[in-house]
Amino acid sequence: MFLPFLYELRRRGVPVGAQEALALAGALKAGLHDSSLDGFYHVARALLVHSEAHLDAFDQAFLAHFKGMEGAGQQLTDELMEWLKEARQRRDLSPEELALLERFNAEELEKLFEQRLREQTERHDGGTKWIGTGGASPFGHSGHAREGFKVGGEGGGGSRMAMKVAGQRRYRGYRSDVVLDTRQMAVALRKLRAFAREGVADELDVEGSIAATAKNAGELEVVTRPPRRPNTRVVLLMDVGGSMDPYAHLVSRLFSVAKQATHFKELRTYYFHNCVYGRVFESSHLVGGLRVTDLLGQVGRHHKLVVVGDALMAPYELAMRTNSDGRYDPTNGKEGLVWLMELARHFERSVWLNPEPPRTWRGNTIEAVARVFDMFPLTLEGLGEAVAHLTKGRMARGRR
Amino acid sequence: MTSSPARFRGTDTYLSSEGLQSAVNCALTLQRPLLVRGEPGTGKTLLAEAVAESLGLRLLTWHVKSTTRAQDGLYVYDTVQRLYDSRFGEGDVRDIRHYIRLGPLGEAFASKERVVLLIDEVDKADVEFPNDLLHELDRMRFRVTETNEDVVATHRPVVVITSNNEKELPDAFLRRCVFHFIDFPDQELMRRIVSVHHPGLDESLSEQALKVFYELRNFTRLRKRPSTSELVDWIAVLKASGVTSLKLDENLPYLGALLKREQDLMAVAEAFGRRSRA
Ligand SMILES: Nc1ncnc2c1ncn2[C@@H]1O[C@H](COP(=O)(O)OP(=O)(O)OP(=O)(O)O)[C@@H](O)[C@H]1O
Ligand SMILES: [Mg+2]
Questions:
Q1: Does A119 lie in the same domain as A145?
Q2: A350 and A216 in one domain?
Q3: E strands, chain A, where?
Q4: Same domain, A88 and A7
């Protein structure tokens, strides 16, 4: 009964596997769903979904799959028992596999299940609805195929609720493929953090002290070390140009989130307008400018540079020449694009986050900027990728 | 495996949705950790208390900080005390056991009765922290290397883990947990939460406060939207000062109890102030 539902979930990007299937089987066996579809909805959601980003997909899968099933109640349990029985009767299950199934031993079963699952999905080629074929999977049905579900007329009570709840698509906003909200930004940024022992040695190093004391023939020798501290330094550069207006709140939220983040050792935030012209600014009203050359003098290569902007402007804006004071200087100034290149070159790791959807990134100034910076969409997924990109190389330098 | 434990249905003072109850019951039955996420103030921390209360179990809390390590939850060996004692001839220095201090996880395992263990704000710690926890949570035992003794859980504790963030937690960890995302309460549920905290509150004040609260939450320019606890506090102040009528404008009393940020206060004054001036 619920296995086809699991395939529906997988098809919609909810990563469910053996552990989830077994947990669900265990819960249904214990009657936690109270023999109702409502109950099943809540139990399945609690056990099959591990992140709010997947709740919407879960709701959609549930709707698609159980439509017309509102009356199904007791049937869920019956079918489950049947499924368990069938699985037990399968001849191609080894005694070990049977024993595993009996015990619901998730860990040991996982490998087996994943392997069978792969075979299954290959065979069905990501088709629409999974259909039990009695194939190689110990979790499939033996012999006769069952398409979808019988629509149970009677059965347990209240089941309409679940369909209604699922239909509201309340969790759409948490999908990881839509533009970010503050909370999600904070999460993504948090991944940038790293720790190191730096600064004044004022923490007692117990192991060190013991070793030193032992060496010292038992005379107490106290060893101290610097405490563990956040070690990520970030430079955040934000475009507040006119075309960014629709994203102004998004951008200011990202700023406030980054500011609140306690896990950065240092965070510098600056603004620019459309493109960087020799100067960046301390406030979004573009006052309190700092020369790019001074900035680069103040921050090291290990700082992570994060630029946020749509990179959309008139082409001449990329070519406009300004000097290091940010003044228009057609003879000795550097082009906007060159200022960007200097920034990109200075930092070991940098990214450009763009709120414009990637399909619009071609044939305009975005394309040019994307050649200078590694560009990621300003979505949860994009930010995640950007952060991964920024933290690459951390290993190579031997810090964790 | 299905010795079905008592079902959780919320408590008199903790209101819970069907989904949340279901998740708690899954965790109890399957003996898996329950991971709860949701906006600040949605009652994640309070849930553990409610579970403990409704099952009549002791609650142990492990408040995770940015420097917390999994080992801290098991035990720490108080070498400093021991060195100190040995120098000044105090305590039973020879017995190392006197200097092993169990952490909350260790205590939960060692407890003679079943307990509820709250691991609060797990996302605060290092990214590797949950993975380090997994091993002990799975095996429900650990070894104190200094004494060569094993601490083995006689009763699997009911583990409630809270987190404000997503994506942070490793997949292996997530897969072992029952998950619930606590929605921000809708107006009806909030009304009930308010009345739990302020029984006998004047109905009209409650209505007005809720209305203003949700108006504020829908105001997109806020950097930090007010949460349940702020509403509860705000109403306490309103009650204490005898306020009877409320409107969302620049004269809204004690707005500072709802909004903690200067910019947010300014944004509200700017957006809702003009209306009354006009
Ligand atoms: N379901 C509820 N029933 C009763 N009171 C609630 C409920 N949810 C929240 N509250 C109130 O909100 C306050 C905050 O709850 P709690 O501290 O548990 O939130 P939290 O989700 O842990 O927040 P944070 O993420 O900030 O730690 C509680 O002290 C209580 O007053
Ligand atoms: Mg809390």
A1: yes
A2: no
A3: 195-197, 203-204, 224-225, 228-230, 232-239, 264-272, 279-281, 289-291, 304-308, 321-322, 334-335, 349-354, 375-377
A4: no
Distance (Å, whole) CA A345 – CA A305? 11
Q: Are A128 and A249 part of one and the same domain?
A: no
pLDDT digits (tens, 9 = 90+) for B69-86: 889 999 988 877 777 777
Q: What is the pLDDT of residue A398?
A: 30
CB contact under 8 A, A51 and B167: yes
ipTM field: 0.87
B87, B168, B179 member nearest A49 (Cβ): B179
Residue that is written with structure tokens 């579970």 in the block: B51
How far is the alpha carbon of A171 from chain B, nearest alpha carbon, in Å?
9
| Dist. CA A76–CA A89, nearest whole Å | 20
Closest protein CA for atom 15 of ligand 1: B43
A237 and A323 assigned to the same domain: yes
Contacts of B227 in chain A (CB under 8 A): none
> What is the mean pLDDT of the segment spanning A216-231?
76
Of A133-147, A178-192, B32-46, give the lowest mean pLDDT range. A133-147
Can you give the residue range of the structural domain that contains A222? 197-230
At A241, is the secondary structure helix, strand, or coil? coil
Poorest-confidence range of B32-46, B125-139, B232-246? B125-139
A384, B167: Cβ pair inside 8 Å? yes
List residues near ligand 1 (CB under 6 A). Answer: B 14-15, 38, 40-46, 162, 164, 193, 196-197, 228-229, 232
Under 8 Å between Cβ of A25 and A104: yes
Residues of A with CB below 8 A from B6's CB? none
Tell me if A42 and B37 make a contact (CB, 8 A cut-off). no
